[in-house]
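Hello,

Following up on my earlier ticket. Below are the two sequence lines again, exactly as submitted.
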Amino acid sequence: MKIKTILFTAILFCNPIFGQVGIEKWKIFEIKLNGPSKGNPFVEVQLNGTFIAGNDTITVPGFYDGNGIYKIRFMPQKEGKWLYTTTSNVKNLTNIKGYFTCTAALKGNHGPVGVKETYYFAYADGTPHTSFGTTCYGWVHQGDSMANLTLQTLSEGYFNKMRMCIFPKSYDWNHNEPLLYPFEGTAPKNWDYSRLNPAFFRNIEKRIGQLDSLGIQADLIVFHPYDSWGFSSLDRKTEDLYINYIIARFAAYKNVWWSMANEYDFMKDKKLSDWDYYIEQFAKKDKFHHLIGIHNGSRIYDHTNPYITHASIQGEDTYRAKEYRMKYKKPVVFDECRYEGNIPWSWGNLTPQSMIEKFWRGFLNGGYVGHGETYVTENPIKLPEVSSDILWWSKGGTLKGESPKRIKFLRQIIESAPAYSKPLNLFTWMPFPSFGIDKEYYLGYLNDAQPRSVVIDLPKDSQYSVEIIDTWNMTITPVSQKFSGHCIIELPGKPYIAIRIIKQK
Amino acid sequence: MKIKTILFTAILFCNPIFGQVGIEKWKIFEIKLNGPSKGNPFVEVQLNGTFIAGNDTITVPGFYDGNGIYKIRFMPQKEGKWLYTTTSNVKNLTNIKGYFTCTAALKGNHGPVGVKETYYFAYADGTPHTSFGTTCYGWVHQGDSMANLTLQTLSEGYFNKMRMCIFPKSYDWNHNEPLLYPFEGTAPKNWDYSRLNPAFFRNIEKRIGQLDSLGIQADLIVFHPYDSWGFSSLDRKTEDLYINYIIARFAAYKNVWWSMANEYDFMKDKKLSDWDYYIEQFAKKDKFHHLIGIHNGSRIYDHTNPYITHASIQGEDTYRAKEYRMKYKKPVVFDECRYEGNIPWSWGNLTPQSMIEKFWRGFLNGGYVGHGETYVTENPIKLPEVSSDILWWSKGGTLKGESPKRIKFLRQIIESAPAYSKPLNLFTWMPFPSFGIDKEYYLGYLNDAQPRSVVIDLPKDSQYSVEIIDTWNMTITPVSQKFSGHCIIELPGKPYIAIRIIKQK
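Thanks for your patience. The regenerated structure is below:
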């Protein structure tokens, strides 16, 4: 009977089923098992899956998905046959064996993003990833119709990363209750912290998957301070339950990034050692080794912590990317440099011109920059605490700003530049950034200055083509003359101009 | 015969003559004497004048003005009868006595500018002075026609301070030779450093006087690094000769400020102790106690030096005025925050929008900000080292920019604000500056942000009028509603907006 039960379980619940061929590399192989629904499965049932291919042995945790259903998710990172075995303290769930075959990744599937060449990101297949993020903290908590609108907007291809909170958000312009809650119980604060709500997490992973299908990284914010339910001040036991659960559920999604916090230093109940603890949990328990970051309020975290993979920074001086590269020896992502918008709070009333300037300065100083948008439209205007305006930064929906299409323009330029271009000093002692490959390719940016010319010293032994890029009007104009040595290049004499200089073969 | 000679000298050369009544307070009383022209009068003749009125005894140096003419200049700062006596190592010049009567200052004559209330400037008669400077480093060295054009431009009333070099300047867009040289000899470097050229200094004081008649302070730069003649690396003996000479000649001009240097730290031949020495010389030898500052290149001077009267700062972050006030406990003057213009060098290609923003942010953070302009117009464009374009910043002439009239607009607003308004926190935790008198008067500025509203907390027990100021379009629009307590004020949702809030009586 035992064999039969196992076979039955595997056939019925494994999806893809027992021995199925053709799990694409970096996609999810999921084992679905039937187990106990009585007691408290979240804390009483231990379940793991061990996956073996050649010399690789990887054990990942399973999780309880409600209604007596248990799942183990695995992201194969190597082609070929993978054997697996489950272990559990529940008889029905243990020692279940099977295998699947991991097939080659199809076009468009580059695998998860990791760090490459110290300061850069690349997908697992080696394709460079230049991070162009945006932010909709609470988009997964607003229901299908708003989420679908958000996804439709994202399909325009402005961005390839989404910063989003796992826990619901309570803040100006977002005082409505969320679609679902992460724990069993009733709002505002009557929760059974020993029982998670699978529907809540199922909704989130659905959105993660939808982002993945759009080629967008899901930068999942584990903790944040914008709270009216108590989720910002859990006890350690509950935190562990939650952390283990999201690792078990979400880590097999190839587009997941872990962000420990938004504005970690604004969470007054947590100490620095708490953050170090969380970081270590993810570093050790996520067997797929997704990127790990932590975002600051007013005090930048010590990103030299070796478990932190990249410096996630809130700061409006994106030109400091170069300095942070040197300091942390990691990729530098300005996840928040203020938002394009018109709200009274200073972090949300950038002009689109300023936003675009911050993007260019950040990228050409060797960093990555993220977007957010905060436009109110109500008439007459209302105080933030009572307004029901829908702001992209919080709920998603549609974009109203002028920066996204110009970010896309920049993205095309950056993605067509040589991979691993680095900050250069095309303008010698001046604060105008440039990056590229020395003597081969230069992309320079004149910030919001309005020079009618630049004076530069190109190598004397080569000829260079020059293009004038109007980053605001999104035009690229080649200069007919070729340049070499000490030269003056005429510019339009207005702000937001870039120049691209390429060696002639 | 001795008495007769003295009387003759005094009658003939004193201008105003011996015993003349009616020297207006803070204007120049000058004694003109005939003395030796042989040998080297610059180093061999000592001459002083001692002026006595009541308990005040002030001894000032005289100077040699060439052709056997010696002068002693004195600025009376107290009304009534002043007696004087000369002392000299030359018989003809010593023990000459006389008197004059100092009369009340006429309208428009407020006396020299000094420090008041720690962080502010005021004229000697108590009238507040809000410094709105500009910069034409070499304007006195370009000849009459250019100087007259500069004065005509200045008569438009944009500015009330001029930063100007005493020594001629050699730099990009200014490689022509000056009108005159400060020492006897021939260019480029064949100078008799023991003999000054009175005509050179006469030309400068003529310009100082012309500025004074326009109500403009002459911020005289004693040393600077833009040199092709050797004047940036004089020996100490020559420096002393020069310093003593300019104090003797210029200090009686009520509108003189002493600026030890432009970009002191770019003068590689000078040590920090040299600068301390110069500062002390002016502090001790100028008996009229004009303001003393020192302007930096990349490293700000230690303005805590007690002889320094105000912090003269080059730096583009004018909002840091508030911080420097705290640090130095002195008035803070951003004498250089980059210039409006279109040259390739980053210090000279600000948009007028940025320049105006820097002015507003500087003033509302409790500082003063200075202007400069660097527009090239040549077609085709030429390298800076060979261009013959005339740039306001270097030679004066006419202004081409868009910022001066907006600086004048700001000046009118600042001068109509309560005297000694100080930085406030109208916008609480946000980086938008405000200044005024708490609960009475607020002037706030939203930088280049584009909020559609501000949320502020005014005192609940009063009503406040609000005006929306468009600092770029130079409009002031009253809001019909009155405000009180926690309130939201609607704004145009575009950058460069200020608000003025005044308590209703």
